[in-house]
């Protein structure tokens, strides 16, 4: 009789949901554990590049994405005074990424979990347990499986078993993101733009109008922006943070001022940019006849200068599901997670290196074309990934 393979996925972010749904579609019985009291996403937006789209399709979770996302062609790079450093034809070039509200993507992934995933919320996993088979515990109860997937983010409590020395450290900058709802957002073209001014950066893109797709999926619509400033997070309340942002970006070319003017304090999501140091030298380790695997920021958290975090997590999920799909517990499963590690580590290292180069600051008037070229090269490298077996 064939063994019923089981997995425990810790963390219900984008990577955790995609991994849980993908494993369930592949025939695994999955328990999904989430620290929060319910499954929810941040009220912000994500760029899903072509590699991320291919990962969703490989997982069987890409249906309906077109209905909830908007193409975001890159308009180019400007200085704060509006002078173009690099101007592009938004209708030309390679396939642009798609911008999707994080809550819309989250809802789609939750809908794709199916009935083979048991979801438990309010579970704060403390550590890995078990020797013959991996398990996790919150100090009161335990959950075990042939595979434990740590998708619990940059502050992962499970990562130490795989990469004991890797610790989150500040990348020296803070980002603010916001989605302005469609009903009070300024009218802008459906494209993305970027402006660099020394230690200040501002990007924006369109989520389109609120609407419903043919499959019944609805999109929230609106305008998304992201500001990055060198320095530590601000402890003030959101209203004060918004006032500071308006002051810091005062006089920047349109539509920066218009976007900040239309933003309300409750729209803001502040996040310190952090990265793992040193970089984990592996992403999986055998435990008894099973294994512990790192997915997403738990294994390769990096400062989001390229906007690839969600896509890398989706790639992790698609690669892991492909490698362990038919693996039996014991030697075959150990070999499968070894293949996952061998496939993901070089890919993550490349994206990390390119993202770090994009994070370098300096006189944009001299370096603007260099930064634009680096961004193009990084985007091309990011888009080159293909799911295993393709």
Low-confidence stretches: 212-217, 361-366
Distance between the termini: 31 Å
Spatial strand order of the main sheet: 6-5-14-15-18-13-19
Q: Tell me the fraction of residues in β-strands, as a range.
A: 25-35%
What general form does the structure show?
globular
Oligomeric form of this entry?
single chain
Give average pLDDT, whole number. Answer: 88
Most strands sheet: 7 strands, mixed
Helical proportion, percent range: 25-40%
Q: Tell me the number of strands.
A: 21
Structural class: alpha+beta
Number of separate helices = 10
**What is the radius of gyration computed over CA atoms, rounded to a whole number of angstroms?**
21 Å
Could you name the key traits of this structure?
390 residues; alpha+beta; seven-stranded mixed β-sheet; six-stranded mixed β-sheet; 10 helices; 21 strands; globular
Structural commentary:
By secondary structure, the protein is of the alpha+beta class. Helices cover 31% and strands 28% of the residues. It is built from 10 helices and 21 strands. Strands 6-5-14-15-18-13-19 form a 7-stranded mixed sheet, sandwiched between helices. The protein has a 6-stranded mixed sheet with strand order 8-2-1-12-21-20. Helix 1 runs parallel beside helix 8 (309-324) and helix 2 (50-58) packs parallel to helix 8.
